[in-house]
Amino acid sequence: MIELRATVPSTLHQSFAGDVYNSAVYLKRCFAEIETSVVTALGEDNLSKKMRERFVSEQLNTQFVFSHNTKVPGMYYIETDDEGERSFIYWRDDSAAKKVVEFMSEDIVKQLSTGDMFFFSGISLAVIENQARPQFWEIVKQLKAAGVKIVFDPNYRARLWDSVEQTKQQYDTAFSLCDITLPGVEDLETLYNVKSVEAVIEYLTPYNIDEIVVKNGPDSVITKEGQTLQSHSITPVKNVVDTTSAGDAFNGVYLGARLDGRTISDAVKLGAKAAGTVIQQPGAIAPKDVFQQAMAQTGL
Ligand code: ADP
To answer: Where is the Carbohydrate kinase PfkB domain positioned along the sequence (predicted)?
Structure first.
C-alpha cells in the first residue's frame, strides 16, 4: 500500500508498506541469500511504478508482482497523537491487490510450487474478494501438496471483514492448511475469546499445526513444535516510538531464520531483536542502516 504519514503540519511523508511486504523486506535484509518474492497486484500508474522499484531496491523478486490495467494501489494515512496513539484512514476497497488471484494462472502456481514457503496473513485473506477465495484455497492446497510450507499470520483487522462469522470460517480453513502459524494474542481474543498465550495454544492444538509461534507484545513469545512447548523471554524496549509492523518484522526474520536452518529459540531471538529495533523508528520500514547495525549486534 501507499503510506502517507503526517509529519509537521500540512506535510505528508509518502512511503510504501503492507504487512506481508514488511515481513519480506526484513527477511531479505537479514538473509540476503534467501530468494524472496512478493505476490501482489499493482496498477500501471506512476506510484505503482515507484512501488515496484522499491521492491527491487529491497532485493525482492517482482516476478509475481502483476499489473492491473485499470486499478491503482490501496493507500492509508497514519497520524500519531501526542500520546503516541495511532489513527488510520484507508482507501483500499477498490485496490489492484483485491484482484491478485485473477493473475494466479496454472503456470504461476507451478512456479510458486518450487518455493520452500508460502506466507499469507489475515489481511491478505480479507483483501482477496469473496468470490476469489475458493480459488485461493485451491492454490494453497496445490502448493501444500507440492511440499511448500504454508505459513499464516491471522493479523486480524475487524474493519476489513463483513462479519466475525466470515472471518472465523476463513481462518478455520487457514489453520487447517498451514504448517506454521504466528498469531498475536490480541488478534485472536476478539474472535475466539482466548485471552492468554496458553488459551491460544489450546485453541490451535486440534489443528495439528507443526509450528505455533504466539506473540504477546513485550511479555513473551511461546512456541509449540510437536509436543515441545517453549517460553522465550523478550527484552522490553523502553523507547517505543511506533509499534507499526513489530509483528511483521518478527515474522519475516523468524521465518528467514527457520529457512536458514536456525533453531526455534534462535529464530525467536532474531525476530524479537528485529521487532524491538523497528518499534524504535517511525513507520513500518526502519532505515536500512539502523536496522542492519542493530541486527549485526546479534552476530547474525
Ligand atoms: P503485533 O505487532 O502483531 O501486534 P506484538 O505486539 O505481539 O505483535 O509484537 C510483535 C513482537 O514485537 C513481539 O513478539 C516482540 O518480539 C516485539 N515487541 C512488541 N512490543 C515490544 C516492546 N515493548 N519491547 C520489546 N519488544 C516488543
So the answer is: 9-287
